[in-house]
Fold each of these.
Amino acid sequence: MDTQIGIIYGSTTGNTERAAELIAKQLGPQAVLHNIAEQGLEGVSSYSACIFGVPTWDFGELQEDWEDLWEEFVKLNLQGKPCALFGLGDQIGYAEWFLDAMGLLHEVLQASGAKIYGRWPVQGYKFEASKALSPDGRFFVGLALDDDCQFAETEERIKIWVEELKPLFEL
Ligand SMILES: Cc1cc2nc3c(=O)[nH]c(=O)nc-3n(C[C@H](O)[C@H](O)[C@H](O)COP(=O)(O)O)c2cc1C
């Protein structure tokens, strides 16, 4: 079978879904959209590479579909699999919890032995705290998107990020 890149996401009000669709468009025909509300996590381990999308809700919590599948998610075998993350949040409304859920997913990917790519610089954002930062605080652990405060930046950020990812995913 051809290389397939799963874009695995949950979305309550549609912003993460829209970002997932833009990422798929930028990646091209190898991208497969995988909404966990409809498909659960079945088949995730079979993708050649995985891109996980999560918005943060309720003061630093996982989006509800991720919450529902969390026990299954932590048990996935992603050893050696190329993976990347994108998160949606609101840096003004929820400055103390900006993109925390992306940080929670990142911890699980790290523990499962995935090869994690696609960190993203913190320049251009204003927030107070985030669980989605690299240890030195200079990067987010994945692509940081904020449709509430910086909607106009989303499409360009996705383009840049996906082009950086392509060679790392060996496309
Ligand atoms: C009730 C509520 C709580 C939220 N909590 C957070 C939060 O703790 N941290 C954050 O970065 N964004 C938070 N947000 C912003 C959402 O993550 C943001 O609107 C996101 O784009 C929603 O994605 P979705 O449409 O895919 O569900 C919150 C939004 C709402 C309405």
Amino acid sequence: MSHIRSPIVLMYHGTPSETPESVYSIKSNLFAQHLRYLQKNDWTTILFKDLATPHSLPEKSIVLTFDDGYKDNFQGAFLPLLEHNMKASWFITTDCIGGHAQWLGKISQQSQMLDATQLLEMHSAGMEIASHTCSHPDLSRLSYDQQFAEFNSAKKILENLLSAPVTSLAYPFGRFNANSLPAAEHAGYSLACTTRPGWFGSENNPFLVRRIAIFSGDSPGILARKLAYADNDVSWKKIVSYYTGRVLNKLHAKVGID
Ligand SMILES: [Zn+2]
């Protein structure tokens, strides 16, 4: 029974060595288990920007994305990735480089962000450093011009820092509106991602790339099921209903009109 479809995009946040404060973050030793699982099962990590040419990707391609740019990603994700000869893409909020995640409302060890030196080192090592806007706003509440300004300046700041083009974007909180897509394209991005779960290619739009969210309790077994079903909820109850749905669809198809 194989459900493997590729490429698929995962979304991580923080990778602290201690117990995560947020359900979206994952302890660094559990993240290392994810890497070992992926390597053992022949997944090839590619960069988010590589999805712009989906026909030239390896057979089992996976994109590991990290939102916000937490400082604990350096020890907890970047170094383990290097060790495994794997790569990943980071979506950075440029106002917070070397500071704190201002939108979280509280300052803690785990809200500290990567600094410019670390971003440069990660980029030189083959990681993708991409855009998560300047201030991490709820884009669905902003005008076209406000969104364009966020997309455009974040891109310029990162390109100046890295001396390389930045063409990927992640919408903060996964929120966007009808203006977000044209504003992102106008600002010069070629791909953008949401937080809607699903396979790459289930949205026929490069500015609506889907991602599977990883949560703090996701064991390698849960990761395996997420890769099989491209869903955030892989409880057995959900999986049983998935199969029931498939059987019903087949029955309906049989009695339906050809
Ligand atoms: Zn974010």
